[in-house]
Automatic annotation (TrEMBL):
Residues 575-603, 686-707 are annotated as: Disordered. It holds the Pfam family NLRC4_HD2. Residues 16-105 form the Pyrin domain. It comes from Canis lupus familiaris. This is NACHT, LRR and PYD domains-containing protein 6.
Length: 824
């Protein structure tokens, strides 16, 4: 339904009178004589402010005169309200409903309705502020959201892959978009107008597990209620936790979900939903929604009861309240299936903490400033651990473990440097606080808890009933109180009690741990599972590290047999042979038709190779990684925005490359950097003309690409072939040239369609003639070169006849080797 004209500007009294008369006359003309007589009879008792029309004025009036009398006596809008109520008392409910719908179409909500909504708005905002003032930490301690929330870096879509080519000089580089810290301005910009002046109705906040998407969504809801966000644009905002709602028993409507969030489940629901353009729905964890059934009818009525998946799917697909705003949070592991269901979404990526905000988080977590500074200094000196702390949940675990170690006077060096080791150390630290006599019982309970986690992960369940805990003899156990949070929901006859892990990533960690704690292990079910098992798989790899295996044997009394590693290596070999995890199914009809014409072939997710490298990094066992990479002779990353953590993982795996390894970087770029605000003093200094002198003194920041190319010069790196195509990695050519003098294994280099200015080609030629250069084949097939650059390369070919340089404008060259053809 289009928004009425009356909503945009206040109508005149003459306009209201004319429309009210038309609506009333049309309504009365639809009544037969008996119905009209009954209506007039009931109208005698219809009072408004103690007044009613005398019977003598109503007797014998036709439809037109009756409409004029009502409008004159009560006024236009009250006359419509009195008529609707009288029709209902005369048992003409369908006529009353039709009149209400026509009134909304012509006039919008009445002034009395708007007054009631306006009064309720303040009541609802106060309710939201009270309900969401505190958030529960993973250890069930409640903290004020304003005290604990630490700003996150958020990058809007468009800051992802700049189109600049390799080799551009610094003066020609455009200013890239950068990630912004999540202050009020950044949150407001999420629904800001784009370059064409259009406001998005759907915004997706993406990011990996534990990055802070849910906390950011709750802070947005809280700030809206406090009047800081979307002022004059959003009247009501609702927080819908998708995973929790999917496990809700029975059918429900969107109206039911809205009422659940209102005080005493009372609200002027119909007028609220009648203005969907003033509503904001926050769908947290929308990637948990199952795909729509092929022939399922979409949900279109907010009062229609259906299963939660259909109701939430109707919001996502804009078949339900299409004018409403949606803020959706989702993991980035497999966004394709979700994005296909959305209408013109604006995507933004939650990038976690900046280095500055990591320090702020430590000082917010530790109440003692001295302990906060000591813990922060320790983590800052551990480079890899400090990098991991960009994920807020990992930062919380690190702080929790360090606080316990500091309070007990333990050695801080126990804290490790991978996500798996941090999680495992946290669990060991928590369990170690129990008396030694309870250790056997705690180990048995831990195995059962891991089994519960695995059942839930494989079955897409995050909430567990009391009967689930009773079946595994976990109800009232020590591990239940340590790792599960209890939630009570009002039921029909009694309160429903459910349990869930302190964080979804913890459930996935315990799921991975279950495969190593139990004697019967079906690793194939995990490794060949769906994309929602990605984090569980990563944890499994991390638990295979020799130090982690030793920790599990010492603290959990379990021995992990060597054959588990062999099973994992066999699975890696299958990935190298092309039996990769299938991409999410496409739902669009055109895509399905195109797929039907193609031969049946499993398609790999775009970021799947990088995910495999993350798994290998978690092991931190060079020999195992080198053996696993032999199963993947060619690594190809395509259209990946490489974050600093991505580059840490890629650098480690490149350093472990076996001989003959090939690496292809196709259309890859760097994730947006943080946009730093200048302090007031710096801005004043710049305005007074001091910026140029400061610029000359400022030290250049090291490129995040540097560790990657330094890894290629490591003596253990066996990388044989490197391909860079359609690049947006600005500094790659300079680093590639520097490694040519030092790399002991690189023999084939393909620079695709990189742009190589004259000075870069000169440096390249000098590197090719360096005694340490072992390159045998250089492919520049699509590179545009000047005449001077061609002459320099021709001179190199003449000086080094064993070097094959492939370019159409150069002299005839030998046919490229089979190895190069395979690499290309």
């Amino acid at each position: 339904m289009d928004p009425p004209e009356a909503c945009c500007s206040p109508p005149s009294v003459e306009f209201l009178v004319a429309v009210a008369r038309d609506l009333l006359q049309a309504t009365f003309e639809d009544l037969n004589q008996e119905q009209l007589k009954r209506f007039r009879h009931k109208l005698r008792d219809a009072t408004l402010d103690g007044r009613n029309i005398p019977w003598g004025r109503l007797d014998g009036l036709d439809a037109m005169d009756l409409a004029a009398q009502l409008t004159h006596f009560y006024g236009p809008e009250p006359a419509l309200d009195v008529t609707r109520k009288t029709l209902k008392r005369a048992d003409m409910l369908d006529v009353a409903a039709r009149l209400k719908e026509q009134q909304l179409q012509r006039l919008g909500p009445s002034s009395s309705t708007l007054r009631s909504i306006s009064e309720y708005k303040k009541k609802y905002r106060d309710h939201v502020l009270q309900q969401h003032a505190k958030v529960k930490e993973r250890n069930a301690r409640s903290v004020k959201i304003n005290k604990r929330f630490t700003k996150l870096l958020i990058a809007r879509e468009g800051a992802a892959l700049p189109d600049e080519a390799l080799g551009c000089t610094k003066e020609l580089e455009p200013e890239p978009q950068r990630a912004r810290r999540s202050d009020t301005h950044t949150f407001n910009r999420l629904f800001g107008r784009d370059e064409e002046g259009q406001r998005p109705l759907t915004v997706v906040l993406q990011g990996p597990a534990g990055i802070g998407k849910t906390m950011a969504a709750k802070k947005i809801l809280y700030d809206w209620a406090a009047g800081k966000l979307y002022h004059g644009q959003v009247d009501f905002a609702f927080f819908l936790p998708c995973r929790e709602l999917l496990e809700r028993p029975g059918a429900c409507s969107l109206a039911d979900l809205v009422l659940d969030q209102c005080p005493q489940r009372k609200a002027p629901l119909k007028p609220m939903l009648a203005r969907p353009e003033r509503l904001l729905f926050i769908l947290d964890g929308a990637d948990d929604l199952p795909p729509l059934a092929p022939h399922a009818a979409p949900c279109t009525d907010p009062f229609q009861a259906a299963d939660a998946a259909r109701v939430l799917g109707g919001l996502l697909g804009k078949t339900l309240l299409p004018a409403a705003r949606l803020l959706v949070t989702a993991r980035t592991t497999a966004p394709g299936r979700l994005l296909d269901r959305l209408c013109s979404p604006q995507c933004a990526e939650v990038c976690g903490f900046s280095d500055k905000d990591k320090k702020k988080y430590f000082h917010k977590f530790f109440w003692d400033e001295r302990l906060a500074e000591r813990a922060y200094r320790f983590v800052k000196e551990n480079e890899t651990l400090f990098a991991l702390c960009f994920v807020p949940f990992v930062c919380w675990i690190v702080c929790t473990v360090l606080r316990q170690q500091l309070e007990l006077g333990q050695d801080l060096s126990r804290t490790s440097k991978t996500t798996t080791s941090v999680y495992l150390l946290f669990i060991i630290s928590v369990l170690s606080s129990a008396p030694a006599a309870d250790a056997p019982r705690m180990r048995a309970e831990l195995r059962k808890l891991c089994r519960l986690a695995r059942e839930g992960t494989l079955g897409h369940r995050a909430q567990f009933a009391e009967k689930d805990l009773e079946r595994l003899e976990l109800r009232g156990s020590k591990v239940q109180t340590l790792f599960l949070s209890k939630k009570e929901l009002p039921g029909v006859l009694q309160t429903d009690v459910t349990y869930q892990f302190m964080d979804q990533s913890f459930q996935e960690f315990f799921s991975a741990l279950s495969y190593l704690l139990e004697e019967e292990r079906d690793l194939r079910a995990l490794l060949q599972g769906e994309s929602h098992l990605t984090l569980t798989t990563r944890f499994l790899f991390g638990l295979l590290n020799p130090d982690r295996v030793s920790d599990m044997q010492r603290h959990f009394g379990v021995a992990v047999p060597e054959r588990v590693k062999q099973d994992v290596l066999l699975w890696m070999q299958e990935q190298g042979q092309g039996r990769r995890r299938a991409a999410p199914e496409k739902t669009a009809g055109t895509d399905a038709a195109e797929d039907a014409e193609e031969p049946e072939e499993e398609e790999c997710e775009p970021n799947y190779p990088l995910e495999l490298l993350y798994c290998l990094y978690e092991t931190q066992e060079d020999a195992f990684v080198r053996q696993a990479l032999r199963c993947l002779p060619e690594l190809e990353l395509e259209r990946v925005r490489l974050s600093r953590m991505d580059l840490v993982i890629l650098s480690y795996c490149v350093r472990c490359c076996p001989p003959g390894q090939a690496l292809r970087l196709v259309s890859c770029g760097l994730a947006p950097a943080q946009k730093k605000k200048k302090s007031l003093m710096k801005r004043l200094h710049s305005s007074l003309g001091g910026s140029s002198s400061q610029a000359s003194k400022r030290k250049p920041q090291p490129s995040p690409l540097r560790p990657l190319f330094e890894a290629m010069t490591d003596e253990h790196c066996g990388l044989n072939s490197l391909t860079v195509q359609q690049p947006s990695l600005q500094e790659a050519p300079q680093y590639i040239i520097s490694i040519l003098r030092q790399s002991v294994a690189l023999s084939t280099l393909d620079l695709g369609d990189c742009q190589l200015p004259g000075p870069v080609v000169t440096s390249l030629c000098a590197a090719l003639q360096h005694p340490g250069c072992r390159l045998q084949t250089l492919s520049l097939t699509s590179v545009e070169l000047s005449k001077e650059s061609l002459k320099e390369l021709q001179a190199v070919k003449t000086a080094k006849p064993g070097l094959v340089i492939i370019h159409p404008a150069l002299d005839s060259h030998p046919k490229p080797s089979k190895g190069l053809s395979d690499a290309l």
